[in-house]
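Entry for NAP complex. Fields follow.
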Amino acid sequence: MNNNHNNRGASGVGHKGVISAVTTALLDLFSRQEQLPGLPDAQRIDGKVCLITGANSGLGKAVAIDLARRGGHIIMACRSGIPAAGEEVKRASGNPNVEMLAVDLSDLRSVTRLCDQMQARNIKLDIAVMNAGLMPLHARKTPQGYEIMFAVHFLANRLLLARWCRDGVLPLQGRRADVPRVVFVSSEAHQSSAPIDFDHFAAFHHYGIKDGMKFYGQSKLHLSTFAQELHRRLNPNGELNVAVHSLCPGPIASNIARESPAYIKPILSPIMKLLFRSPQQAAAPVCYLACADDMASRSGVYLHMMREKQPSPLALDPSNGQRLWAMSGDLIQPFLHTNQREKECL
Ligand SMILES: NC(=O)c1ccc[n+]([C@@H]2O[C@H](COP(=O)([O-])OP(=O)(O)OC[C@H]3O[C@@H](n4cnc5c(N)ncnc54)[C@H](OP(=O)(O)O)[C@@H]3O)[C@@H](O)[C@H]2O)c1
């Protein structure tokens, strides 16, 4: 029997809440388990083309500044903060080579427009940081009718990568000395999610503040499973064509809780400021996966902050990855305009 079969439906999604997710993160934050060394300031990525989604705020902006300081050509793929956030990244990094491209990742038509633009400009990515994310107060439908976290955390990335691989935006043939890298910002919340409900795949379900964290974890399980499947598909038979990594940055004092109700904010804000890491600190594992020499010769690595861990067994299971790939392939197909032969590869 397939262990993914989940008869509990979406109401059975996940089984732990925000408190357990934060507790795990804090325990890991203060654990003595061996950590990776930080990336030295001297590590340069001069001229490398780096795209970061959701780079106008929080973690994404901190990553954009760090990669710009290291000499990258920065493309901030954002739906807001244009052009102010780009100017801020230029000022903070001293690197004028920063541009912003508009995209709303909850709308697959907008994702398609971004891909068309990148293809037309013949952009070749060296580093892609798939960072954008959100925690809505309650379920919202995207223009294509999907639940918004499913769409932003997973489906938009699925379409972006399918287009980039097809269009050559992500060069798969060793064009340069270094292979390109793709870094997915996931969350430890994926570890406590119930299996992907393939029987109701991509179905919209209503939820409110009480269940939001469960659906957040579920959407990040989709993303973590996709990251592992992409890693296997792009690097068959031990080849290394693209370094595909993922991570949880740990709890961050960012804008992620912006939708939380007014009565929670007076409690949450001081807790976040006191206990959570700054976006600059949280950027360390992202930049390590994106720039460190030892991460160019590996793929499929998962970090929780600066510790290497295993993603959940569900995310690692190739049968889940194949199923997710095939079922989401059908969803993005109308936005790809491909023939059947191409479809099988995407
Ligand atoms: N904060 C934490 O404790 C924590 C813990 C684990 C993992 N993470 C992950 O870290 C990542 C960054 O989050 P953060 O903490 O830095 O939060 P944040 O400050 O709220 O930043 C989130 C970014 O995602 C963008 N975004 C959201 N929906 C989008 C859409 N439809 N189209 C385009 N961009 C969109 C936001 O753009 P707008 O400003 O336009 O909305 C913003 O730039 C997320 O993937 C999050 O799940 C965060």
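NOTE: The beta strands are 49-53, 73-78, 98-102, 127-130, 181-185, 243-248, 302-304, 307-309.
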